């Protein structure tokens, strides 16, 4: 079970790293937080959706959004086109085919529910395997990839 202190410490580290990298909106995967919620802190507000309170704390997705953007996100009074963000966490290679099919069915339904003409951004950990040689990625990912 994840302790409240460890969750607070992790959230603090993530928010500091996002601030250092000057990230406005980040999709978060493997949050391991229960249910759904929102927590506003000094620089970022975190939104998450996880498993039920009585279930094992695994997986989970969310967003960290810079507080200065929140009034722009909540109100769309200027008539600009809405932007829909999806944060997804795909099953691993070792998951059963049923689990994988269920994930992609749910993702497809979410995408199809977005009205035509609205923008869509999918930010995800698709759990892809890219082989052992990652040298070709060095020039494009280094600054933005944060992993443990």
Automatic annotation (TrEMBL):
Species of origin: Octopus bimaculoides
Domain of life assignment: Eukaryota
Protein name: Endonuclease/exonuclease/phosphatase domain-containing protein
InterPro entries listed in its UniProt record: Endo/exonu/phosph_ase_sf
